């Protein structure tokens, strides 16, 4: 059933949340954003409904992007049941709940996709569109020009493209920008006390209470204090060119000039670590945790005995660092690891 009036106080919160999430996925105009925010503030149940559906939607996004190394497309077998004997009565409640969560994500995605098709078209390219994330999610957005915007948790960005300029405003939080080359239309980000101008490059912007921090990971950008405006085209001490590997900080609107420093690779990795996929285990069976890691790698973890399968794992792990996970198992859980070709066999120590 489709909710025709999302602002109606009698509308079901779950249906209204799905209605809003569908529209938020294609971007909200400023007026829609204000209505959405007012609806969220009206009742705690509204925010809770958005959080529930948002987590399911984010889970589906993660599954959609999982793929073997080197593959050009997502793995179509991710949601298929495993081979006989791998599932069933022997698994605990958590495993069954994980299956239900995946099914719920598929159902929610279908519902939202239907509503997107039935709803109004996306805003025109020259209309401001707002993208946001809650405290429970991150988002990856492909913009109209092919550029990519990744938003960290609790972040908001306003996007407005015109014939001669691509203008974005990071309202709060943190974003990673991958800019499509278009010399005829500069790509300008307004973030707190700074303007960041690029043509084709990649950079991270983090808004902080005491200013803004910009890290360039590819290409170069020009950073200018906001009081100078984005049209100041010539590099200067007040408006420097910042190249890959450099970080610039602007502590406030009244700052005379940005502070530029060069970072080591380790420091760069720490700044953009939020973009790496994370796996969160809450007393998971090791067998189930291993299945999650294996979705991200061609090198597979293999459980070597039933006792090892039942070890309980708790914590947050980087999905792209299976070696660190194996070292943890060896150091803290009495597990031995044996490399066999493209597999790592895990067994409990005698």
Structural class: alpha+beta
Residue share in helix: 25-40%
Number of domains: 3
The ordered H/E elements are HHHHEEEEEEEEEEEEEEHEHEHEHEE
Q: Rounded to an integer, what's the Rg over CA atoms?
A: 23 Å
Query: Strand count, sense and closure of the main sheet?
Result: 7 strands, mixed
* C-alpha geometry: globular
Structure annotation, total helices: 8
Strand content: 25-35%
- State the separation between the terminal residues, measured CA to CA: 58 Å
Spans with pLDDT under 50 lasting ≥5 residues?
A: 62-125
**CATH fold name of the largest domain:** Jelly Rolls
Mean pLDDT across the residues is: 75
Please give the number of β-strands: 19
CATH architecture identity of the largest domain: Sandwich
CATH class of the largest domain: Mainly Beta
Strand line-up of the largest beta sheet: 1-4-5-7-8-11-12
List keywords for this structure.
350 residues, alpha+beta, Jelly Rolls, Phage tail protein beta-alpha-beta fold, 3 domains, seven-stranded antiparallel β-sheet, 8 helices
Textual characterization of the structure:
There is one protein chain. Strand 13 (246-250) and strand 14 form a beta hairpin. The chain folds into three domains: 13-118; 129-273, Jelly Rolls; 276-348, Phage tail protein beta-alpha-beta fold, CATH 3.55.50.30. The chain is globular. Strands 1-4-5-7-8-11-12 form a seven-stranded mixed beta sheet. Strands 2-3-6-9-10-13-14 form a seven-stranded antiparallel beta sheet, with no helix packed on it. With 350 residues, the chain is α+β, with helices and mostly antiparallel strands. The relative contact order is 0.08. Residues 62-125 have low confidence and may be disordered. The protein has helices at 13-26, 30-42, 44-65, 93-118, 265-271, 286-294, 306-309, 322-332; strands spanning 129-132, 139-142, 148-151, 156-161, 166-172, 174-178, 187-191, 194-198, 202-208, 211-218, 220-225, 241-243, 246-250, 259-262, 278-285, 300-303, 312-318, 335-340, 343-348.
């Amino acid at each position: 059933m489709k909710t025709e009036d999302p602002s109606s106080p009698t509308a079901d919160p779950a249906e209204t949340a799905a209605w809003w999430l569908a529209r938020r996925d294609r971007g909200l105009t400023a007026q829609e954003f204000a209505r959405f925010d007012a609806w969220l503030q009206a009742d705690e149940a509204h925010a809770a409904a958005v959080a529930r559906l948002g987590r399911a939607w984010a889970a589906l996004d993660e599954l959609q992007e999982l793929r073997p190394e080197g593959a050009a497309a997502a793995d179509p077998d991710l949601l298929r049941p495993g081979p006989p004997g791998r599932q069933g009565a022997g698994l605990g409640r958590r495993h069954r709940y994980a299956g239900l969560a995946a099914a719920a994500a598929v159902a929610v995605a279908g519902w939202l996709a239907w509503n997107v098709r039935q709803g109004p078209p996306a805003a025109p390219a020259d209309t401001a569109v707002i993208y946001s994330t809650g405290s429970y999610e991150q988002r990856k957005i492909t913009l109209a020009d092919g550029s990519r915007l990744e938003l960290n948790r609790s972040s908001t960005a306003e996007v407005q493209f015109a014939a001669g300029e691509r203008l974005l405003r990071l309202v709060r939080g943190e974003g990673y920008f991958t800019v499509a080359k278009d010399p005829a239309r500069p790509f300008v980000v307004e973030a707190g006390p700074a303007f960041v101008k690029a043509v084709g490059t990649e950079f991270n912007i983090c808004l902080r209470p005491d200013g803004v921090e910009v890290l360039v990971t590819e290409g170069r950008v020009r950073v200018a204090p906001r009081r100078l405006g984005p049209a100041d085209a010539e590099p200067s001490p007040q408006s420097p060119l910042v190249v890959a590997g450099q970080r610039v900080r602007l502590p406030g609107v009244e700052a005379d000039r940005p502070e530029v420093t060069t970072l080591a690779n380790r420091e760069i990795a720490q700044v953009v670590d939020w973009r790496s996929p994370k796996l969160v285990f809450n007393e998971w069976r090791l067998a189930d945790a291993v299945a999650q890691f294996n979705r991200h790698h061609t090198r597979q973890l293999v459980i070597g005995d039933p006792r090892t399968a039942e070890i309980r794992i708790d914590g947050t792990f980087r999905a792209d660092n299976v070696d660190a996970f194996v070292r943890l198992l060896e150091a803290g859980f009495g597990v031995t690891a044996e490399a066999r070709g493209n597999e790592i066999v895990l067994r409990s120590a005698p």
